[in-house]
Hints:
- The structure is a homotetramer.
- Chain A contains seven helices and nine strands, in the order E-H-H-H-E-H-E-H-E-H-E-E-E-E-E-H.
- Chain A is α/β, with parallel strands linked by helices.
- Chain A has a single domain (about 5-220), classed as 3-Layer(aba) Sandwich (Rossmann fold).
- A nine-stranded mixed sheet of chain A has the order 2-1-3-4-9-8-7-5-6.
- In chain A, helix 3 packs across helix 7 and helix 5 crosses helix 6.
Amino acid sequence: MSINAVVWNENVHETHNKIVGDLYPKGIHGAIAGALNAAGGISATTATLQDDEHGLPAERLAKTDVLLWWGHAAHGDVEDAVVERVAEAVWAGMGLIVLHSGHFSKIFKRLMGTPCNLTWREAGERERLWVTSRNHPITAGLPDHFELENEEMYGEPFGIPEPLETVFISWFQGGEVFRSGATWRRGAGNVFYFRPGHETYPTYFDANVQQVLANAVRWAHNPAARITDVTDAPNIPVERACEPITARGAKLHTDGEDGFR
Amino acid sequence: MSINAVVWNENVHETHNKIVGDLYPKGIHGAIAGALNAAGGISATTATLQDDEHGLPAERLAKTDVLLWWGHAAHGDVEDAVVERVAEAVWAGMGLIVLHSGHFSKIFKRLMGTPCNLTWREAGERERLWVTSRNHPITAGLPDHFELENEEMYGEPFGIPEPLETVFISWFQGGEVFRSGATWRRGAGNVFYFRPGHETYPTYFDANVQQVLANAVRWAHNPAARITDVTDAPNIPVERACEPITARGAKLHTDGEDGFR
Amino acid sequence: MSINAVVWNENVHETHNKIVGDLYPKGIHGAIAGALNAAGGISATTATLQDDEHGLPAERLAKTDVLLWWGHAAHGDVEDAVVERVAEAVWAGMGLIVLHSGHFSKIFKRLMGTPCNLTWREAGERERLWVTSRNHPITAGLPDHFELENEEMYGEPFGIPEPLETVFISWFQGGEVFRSGATWRRGAGNVFYFRPGHETYPTYFDANVQQVLANAVRWAHNPAARITDVTDAPNIPVERACEPITARGAKLHTDGEDGFR
Amino acid sequence: MSINAVVWNENVHETHNKIVGDLYPKGIHGAIAGALNAAGGISATTATLQDDEHGLPAERLAKTDVLLWWGHAAHGDVEDAVVERVAEAVWAGMGLIVLHSGHFSKIFKRLMGTPCNLTWREAGERERLWVTSRNHPITAGLPDHFELENEEMYGEPFGIPEPLETVFISWFQGGEVFRSGATWRRGAGNVFYFRPGHETYPTYFDANVQQVLANAVRWAHNPAARITDVTDAPNIPVERACEPITARGAKLHTDGEDGFR
Lengths: 261, 261, 261, 261
């Protein structure tokens, strides 16, 4: 049974900028979905900012194993309710892969709890990604390093929480470095950030990049049934305690009432 | 030079519930500030929900080394703008200690990026806290374990990101366990969550609890000057690159313009 | 294709102690291998201290996807050469699951770099394991907590490095807690420690324990080809540098020579 | 009261190689100790391989707050008993700072539990270290990045366990990257690895490097009293259990006897 991946893209540059439109005639989302569908074992569809509910209604998220997210110019246009819905889906077990300028997306900042800022330069310089965690599932089939001849530079310090694992670190021609591949777990959801992917370069047609994305989808997929009560804080009454106890002392709450939130 | 600590409390139960009011006549904030001031090397003041800007205007936060946060019934009444201001202060280097029911505070959920939920029971049962990180600064002067005869139970699973370090784990009489002391770093700010402190019990008068809080203030204090541009994402133009490079390829941005956010 | 698991046991108590021998007539290794073989997708065999090379010659380790390790009375009898061979296999990608009193095995201490000590009591008391990482692969099919009516107690502080993820925490009837399930990565190898399993109790016949072990084998399995040069530190000569550089300054080494170790 | 630092050096190249001898007339250990003593609040002495017990008898380690370690050509000549003694001191609370080629020292490999290997090139190329954890204590007083015009290259993948925190990442002129500053905790001891310091370059006279080392000594210092029973695994008899319990079930051990190791 294949993994259901949804590639979300704001889809703005493709329709407003001729360079990007010519480079990605099916959109960045279309290019990525095409690569994932060709990788085997993954069934990828797309969603964009312009779709109703940004293409991410609750019933679709419920069936999405892994969501990929590309945004840049229109982070502010993403509705907060959809961001919260995606966050809850991640906590409940949906995988999330945040791409490139998605570092400043509402959903990434929401899940990290940090500014997610960095330094940057758009100069088409050479980027070389080094694997820092040998034989990590996300590096399957990759050499120890690979190059992208033209990329935007992102530089440290990168305003993220310490990753669970650092998988790639990039070298840039202009002298910077960057933690280009990093993982976190948020609730039952696996989160991966992958740096490359500036819209004016053909990054998403690169074979190594496509390999990383397919690997990451497989890694992020949590096959467990989605958690349904993901933000609940259940009261465990005295009579249902694992060990027999007797209530003592002063109480603020009456039995069985909901806690404050 | 002493560490400036501010003890924030929603101060609701103290004024609305006779049990709590009698137990903490100066408020939970007053009890904690008193203990910190007696500990040596710490200068503690208080702030409450009812104060103007909740007692946390920008100029006060700028001088606060470590903020302690107690809330329960009124999490929803804390203004989002103040929450965001506190988050930025943490990223810039202010320490934050979140207490007990503060697990559901806006600021803790904001910095964790997770639901921060748990199970609970108000039965005045025995809690025993075990040190899991020997000689961690937060455990200075403490035995390997200590007890609170009456406490509210909080049980796992606790909906937090994997901590940087787990410092305390609690045993409860009714059969549950809980990661009662855990650390994270968010930007330049040290964050510590400490579980005990239900408002109907004299927890904040316990000598071991007071020791933990004083230790935690010292641990959370980052003496470095506060970061001023904590969410900035500066452009590094080609001519200021560390290594000489020439711009190549298609560009979306004109030189020196701000990036999208 | 099934996962090749090898269950290693020192196999001492089974042959020297009537209680243990009667409880585990096929040995602890036999009981565990039986459970794994019944779980589906796993092909489990056994090895013991008494076998030639402790049953772990290089060619067998090369084909072992995941090794499980139970030892207690005879840690000191395990040959250092075999320990080092197992360590290299782990770094190269073999999974390792260390069981109960294996906390003091040479291989666990070797991979952790810490004392791996704890407190203990053999009183047949109740243990309750709580899941702390919801829907972690190692918890598949398990409830939020499960009990073992009779177990040895292990208590914190547990002398381990901070885990990558804490998956289970135990509550003990006598008042202690313990991080009973924890993960690390060492090189390309996934390592899991699982606490229960005292030899005088029927722990390895418990359905939940068997579920954890099967889950852990699947989680620890790294399908990537084993790394062959796992301790090499290759010299990258100037003429093979990714970027053109010219050697400068004083040199200690001549070109292409091996580094010091 | 100042922090007692001991700078350990194998002191081989200085006496066998004219370039190194001329560059470091007081030895690398002398240069580092000099810088630490000039930094304020640190009292640094030195020890070398050639000293009796390598200059690290038990009574000296007991009074050492932080040990710095430089080795390269003679890792194999360090006695195992001294390595184990140092490991125990770290677990008990002594800080340890491992420098440059010390990545292959017995003590670093012992504490990491991994191969600690890397790629390398001695070409006097430019290294630029980027701070990845803003305002971390180890970065106090440093700019966001600094350069060493001539250094040996160390490249990823670096065979270490995932660090607690990654503090520096290096960019190399020849195209590689490296996690040049990383922290771990082992028992009560803080461990920091710092990459630069090839013996044929004047790295330890660089002001930024000296600042890092002084910062690291202050960060690694654990002021708590040294743990005395750091590898003990105490039995807690039934009658001393925190909660009243009665022993049940079959027993392997008689009361109060030592556990197996």
